[in-house]
Amino acid sequence: MEELESQERIGDFLVRIGAMHQEQVEDVLAYQESNPHSLFGMIAIEKGYIDDSALRKYLTAKLGSTRSEK
């Protein structure tokens, strides 16, 4: 299982595990600037950059890191 580095943002995590390229992250962030209520993961899925399994990896890693901080 991939581990989330301390306070790692979703885009950085997805690049690190090879699910996205940095240019795709920048595209999602640019879109998000004009649509601030849109979630990064949902935008990336809608643009076809990732599928829900990549998002699940992030959420699983985030949940695991949250549990270990307690």
General description of the model:
The protein has one domain. The longest helix has 18 residues, at 52-69. The protein has helices spanning 10-16, 22-34, 40-46, 52-69. It starts with 9 loop residues before the first helix and ends with a helix. By secondary structure, the chain is mostly helical. It contains four helices and no strands. The radius of gyration is 12 Å and the shape is globular.
| Count of distinct strands | 0
Number of domains: 1
What portion of residues belong to β-strands? under 5%
**Helicity, as a percent range:** 55-70%
Q: So how many helices?
A: 4
Q: What descriptors fit this protein?
A:
70 residues; mainly alpha; 4 helices; 64% helix; globular
Secondary-structure map:
Elements: H1 10-16, H2 22-34, H3 40-46, H4 52-69
